[in-house]
Amino acid sequence: GQSLEQPSEVTAVEGAIVQINCTYQTSGFYGLSWYQQHDGGAPTFLSYNALDGLEETGRFSSFLSRSDSYGYLLLQELQMKDSASYFCAVMENSGYSTLTFGKGTMLLVSP
Amino acid sequence: IAGITQAPTSQILAAGRRMTLRCTQDMRHNAMYWYRQDLGLGLRLIHYSNTAGTTGKGEVPDGYSVSRANTDDFPLTLASAVPSQTSVYFCASSEGKDTDTQYFGPGTRLTVL
Hints:
Distance between the termini of chain A: 41 Å
Order of helices and strands of chain A: EEEEEEEEEEE
Helix content of chain B: under 10%
Low-confidence stretches of chain A: none
Order of helices and strands of chain B: EEEEEEEEEEE
Strand content of chain A: over 45%
Oligomer: heterodimer
Largest interface: A-B, 23 and 28 residues
Shape of chain B: globular
């Protein structure tokens, strides 16, 4: 079977750093993506890792370890607007491939 | 550029009725997808289409059908709606091969009574 595990909820304060972990067990693996969804809104793409290591995009970074079937999303200098749900998603094959999403982590940022 | 549009925004439907959710993209993307989102269950793939004229089943296809007559449109049909199909439905598209980004529409909130 396929499964992605991520914490259901994480809380942090403004200005802090938070890490959202994702472990996956899938039949194939090509890459790991992260999506953000504000309440009532559409998911939007944040980052993608196909190779081991860290990818940095502004305040957000994403890490992948293929050997550990593990990745994380790192959010720095948290702002209130970062309060949202964050989903990891695995792309299992190259070429035409669907995504399998985790159940999501709700991040609550407080003042 | 609108990206992806979905219609209707929301709908209340009596059980047993037929309903088609519409999805249109103007990015000329090859691949399109339909997801349902339920509290605590994340996004689950219903059906997908890699190119116009082809479709495939996702994780939860039962009770739903799709068609892909052209590149831009990907309607989702509930032939006979049941209360368990109450959900938020998202359409998405991507360029296709070796792509890493899906672009999502605003969603349709469907309630089946």
